[in-house]
Specification:
alpha/beta; Aspartate Aminotransferase, domain 1; Aspartate Aminotransferase, domain 2; 2 domains; 16 strands; about 40% helix
């Protein structure tokens, strides 16, 4: 980093510790354009962090900038549902025709609160079942870990009450038999089974059709609701999200991420049309106009089917390139991918569940990520945290990313030979 960036980082470590720690792992951003981000010294980095998945169209996308300008002419009045929310919901229904009605919320966490509260009220039950690979996000309910037989859980983070953790059971990702066993014990008190379709806590794991079918069947046989986590996959994997790609038919789906276009936080809950569900009146306040307008702009762009085709092609090129580099340098570097979401890890067996996730070589990944950053490429500080391509990434950007990875592997090889 340059002098100004170093000075700001030192100040952040002192005055804003969280920003300082995250700045050490990535950078303190000064500006962004397309698929590049810049620090305070105007040093450019090719970004594969993707705003934790929110940046699908690219930084500074003209459609999104125009949407922000239109929102600013409305006076940015908060606390009101704006007319454009109806346009947003029409686009949501166009992309996901099996879902209706919709509730649009100011954040993903409020969307989750609404979804889980509805499941408990609808079923008259208390417990929620999650998989150990489920993305945790900012939802307290999900920050638990199995600590006893049949998924009995305890808090992962200090400050979460033990009584909250007791309302959640944790089952191993990909193990439908264990899910059935847990439901046999507590199914009569289970309100919902929550499914993150790519097990983002472990990076990216593509679910098998058999697993998806077994989860849905076991959940419904127990009289619980199947809740699909589309906060990473929604509108990114396809116009219809993971539900379309993997053939999942949820009772409830929770969205966020891409819906805000990378410029505003927003969440949404949708119910299966066949349920004819009616959300109650205790809904959170409306999102700010910028979030609504950004959502309209994003979904309008995604009407063009070539967007996801382009993302798939760039993702496949990147995955193939990483595999080639791993073979060339005799490194156990693996790339797991679904569409434009991918996760790399140094792992001899690959990451398929919690046990293999625990065996990932974090030290080697740390060396690799730091060397990639020196070569102008931003990757997650830990592995296998998901990385993301955007619509702004072109062929040359994928080539640049692979060139940076190659430079990092060469440097590591030389260091190991000393």
């Amino acid at each position: 980093m340059g002098q100004r960036a170093d000075e700001l980082l030192a100040q952040a470590r002192k005055d804003v510790p969280l920003a300082g720690r995250r700045g050490e792992e990535s950078l303190l951003l000064a500006k962004a354009k397309g698929c590049q981000v810049f620090d305070a010294d105007n040093v450019a980095y090719l970004d594969l962090l993707g705003g934790a998945g929110t940046n699908l169209l690219g930084y500074g996308n003209q459609y999104l900038l125009d949407a922000v300008r239109r929102a600013s002419t409305m006076g940015l009045a908060s606390g009101f549902h704006i007319a454009a929310e109806l346009e947003l919901v029409e686009l949501l229904r166009e992309h996901t025709p099996a879902l209706s009605p919709w509730a649009v919320t100011p954040s993903e966490s409020e969307a989750w609160e609404l979804a889980l509260r509805w499941c408990r009220r609808d079923t008259g039950r208390r417990l929620v079942i999650v998989f150990d690979g489920n993305r945790r996000g900012a939802v307290e309910t999900f920050h638990v870990t199995a600590s006893g037989p049949l998924g009995v859980s305890q808090p992962m983070v200090a400050g979460i009450p033990a009584e909250l953790a007791r309302l959640v059971r944790v089952v191993p990702w990909g193990d439908a038999e264990v899910l059935s066993n847990v439901l046999a014990e507590v199914g009569v008190d289970t309100a919902a089974v929550v499914l993150d379709p790519i097990a983002a806590q472990f990076g990216v794991i593509r679910p098998t059709p058999e697993f998806i079918l077994a989860v849905a069947a076991a959940t419904r046989a127990a009289g619980a609701r199947l809740v699909l986590d589309e906060t990473l996959t929604g509108f990114r994997l396809a116009r219809g999200g993971a539900a379309e790609v993997f053939g999942i038919e949820p009772d409830v789906a929770v969205f966020g991420g891409v819906l805000g276009g990378g410029v505003a936080r927003i969440g949404a809950v949708a119910w299966a049309r066949t349920l004819a569900a009616t959300p109650s009146d205790e809904l959170p306040g409306p999102p700010p106009p910028i979030a609504i307008m950004a959502g309209v702009a994003t979904l309008s762009v995604l009407r063009n089917e070539s967007v996801h085709q382009r993302l798939e092609e760039r993702g496949a090129d990147l995955e193939a390139g990483v595999t080639t580099l791993a073979e060339r340098f005799s490194r156990p570097l693996r790339c797991a991918r679904v569409g434009s979401i991918f996760a790399c890890a140094f792992s001899r067996q690959g990451v398929t569940d919690g046990n293999s996730f625990a065996r990932v070589d974090q030290d080697t990944w740390g060396r690799f990520a730091r060397s990639c950053r020196e070569a102008g490429l931003l990757l997650p500080a830990r592995s296998p945290v998901p990385s993301f391509l955007s619509h702004a990434h072109g062929d040359k950007d994928v080539e640049q990313a692979l060139a940076a990875m190659e430079a990092a592997l060469k440097k590591m090889q030389k260091e190991d030979e000393l």
